[in-house]
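User: I'm curious what two different proteins look like when written out as structure tokens. Can you demonstrate?

Assistant: Sure. I'll show them one after the other, since each token string lines up with its own sequence. Here's the first protein:
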Amino acid sequence: MKTKASPVIRPGNLELEHWRQGSFFESRDVSFGAHLGLTNLGIGYGEVPAGKAGCPFHNHHVEEELFIILEGEGTYRFGNERYEVGPGDILGAPAGGPETAHHLINTGSEPLKYLSISTMAATEICEYPDSGKFLAKTRIPGEAKARFRYIGRTESAVDYWDGEPGA
């Protein structure tokens, strides 16, 4: 059963999910756009501990993202550049190639707290320049879960006709 959306969210009342991957990636975060009744705009809140990043360095081919730093200090890695950021800073991540790849690293001693806002395309391709991976996904508008999701590397590509009957 779907919960009724509310036009107001109190971030302090949201239950954050804590996760950790390896020694560099960790966050406490939550997505809540759907709770506001939004179907094509993603909104999240994140808290990244000191010395950690909340996601791998990546770029989107379709979706755009915006981050608003609420508390803490960090480095915004964007393309080949690095920018020191802090409370009140607004960071853009337009769609594009590796020149728009981005992620936030907490370089302070306190948690880096921020809002993330993104368009939510029905189909998206992300690249991960540090690891050479890509992500292809589709979703049904209004649903958070992807209908199709594949992470791989271009070396695993097959010919268009591979496996087709009679080809």
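Here's a second, unrelated protein for contrast:
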Amino acid sequence: MAGMLGNAYLWVKAAHLIFVIFWMAGLFMLPRYLVYHQEALAGAGGDAALWVEREHKIRTIILTPAMIVVWVLGLLLAANAGLFSGGAGLGWLHLKLLLVVILTGYHGWAVGYARKLKAGKPTLTGRRLRMINEVPAVLVTFIVILAIVQPF
């Protein structure tokens, strides 16, 4: 499936997968950091400021740059597959892109919740926050299945 990318296709695909792994690592870590940050707010210790710094670093060094690269390379791969030229049999890709949009929204929510915690204004219980942490795992499970199996 070289398409418009020619011999670069496998390199672009490999880079896309590498940055997906980086993005997912960040999406697994940041929500866990949010739990610890929220617990630090409830405690008497001064750890909350440390969590603000940690959240900022993971966001600016790993999470957001990886997401941007994932989107750029993913759209290149989608174009290569014929998404923008009306290629047939790409229903799986449409659904995959929808799930990636939702995952991107989750990324934005996590960044926004970090800002709430920085301001000392948590709005979720610890239990609910822990449950929300599972969203990326569920979404990436379906995304991988769609990308590998291409069921429709």
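A detail about the second structure: The chain has five helices and no strands.
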